[in-house]
Amino acid sequence: MTAHVLVLNAGSSSLKFCVFQETAPKAWRLDARGQIEGIGTSPRFSAKDESGQKIDDRSLDPSVRTAVTALDELATWLRGRYDGAQVVGVGHRVVHGGSHYKAPTLVTPDVIADLKQLVPLAPLHQPYNVAAIEAVAQRLPGVPQVACFDTSFHRGQPAVAELVPLPIELRQSGVQRYGFHGLSYEYIASALPSVAPEIAEGRVIVAHLGSGASMCAMKNRKSVDSTLGFTALDGLCMGTRPGAIDPGVILHLFQTLAMSAKDVETLLYKKSGLIGISGISNDMRDLLESGKPEARLAVDYFVYRAAKEIGALAAVLGGVDAVVFTAGIGENSPEIRRRICEASAWIGLDLDVAANERKDTRISRHGSRVSAWVIPTNEELMIARHTGVVLGLIQTRA
Length: 398
What we know:
The protein has 398 residues and is of the alpha/beta class. It has helices spanning 67-81, 109-117, 126-139, 159-162, 168-171, 182-195, 247-255, 261-270, 273-278, 284-289, 293-317, 327-332, 334-343, 353-358, 379-397; strands at 3-10, 14-24, 27-37, 44-49, 54-59, 86-94, 105-106, 145-149, 203-209, 213-219, 222-226, 322-326, 371-374.
């Protein structure tokens, strides 16, 4: 019987999924990917096969309003496509693992309870990650689940990189820099030896640029530092999040403007960043197409912050061998890559403009002291790999 792993990434209004088939021990091949979007408003199901060909695309009944009902729709589709196949496990992207979870973990009721305690630290993602886990537990109680954390890859950083300079009693309660987008960075680290072996064991800055954006400094394919910290609000400017901001601004919002905690949370997570600066859109594509000065300012700030963080991470690494672009903007926007590379020319990065426009894997000139690369990320494959390993360890111990 063919073994499959189901990978889920649940959000507030969407449920993204991938189905991987085991082709050899610890080896997984993508068989299908898709999503249920518009949950709670105008739900729609879409799916593609391994080659990217559309295999399903249809509207769903408006009664699909929660992760549970969305999962019911997905389960019906899976039964129709994979009749007789065995789902050996379900792997979940979970944004925050806190200080306790340093590696992918088999889901238990205690794990679910722990993850719920971390909801305030990742309110845009964590509640929906947990809801999907609970929904699977209800619908497929005999199928093991594995939680794969965006924070795990960054554990093991130097103590100063994880430190939040507050009193020790607060730090002992779990206030520290965690870093995020770890599944993406871990995939890039795993791909470097085959895609770019000349830089794999060197000093590499990986720029995960999307609606959520961050950078990670790697040495020998290990995380040394990252731009995201205690929550996913730090560092770079993002689609709706501000990135690094003077804590005094937050005090001002509370003390002078008398905003409530909920209003401040909404402001920081949903109304800031590109949408806050431009007042137009949180989508970089819209801003690049717009001729309005507010849109140009938002793009300028995004590039400015990115170049600034490259400089900071270069100092942490004691020099740079390569910069790698990944994720939605990083993989698909030649203009943003060009502008960031040009702003980073001082570190020895000499961009090959034509290679950048062609979206080549290497986009720096040969002979450039610091090379630049575009490597597509694959968080879902990373989750499938982790799920297979964790379940394999369980079977071995049993």
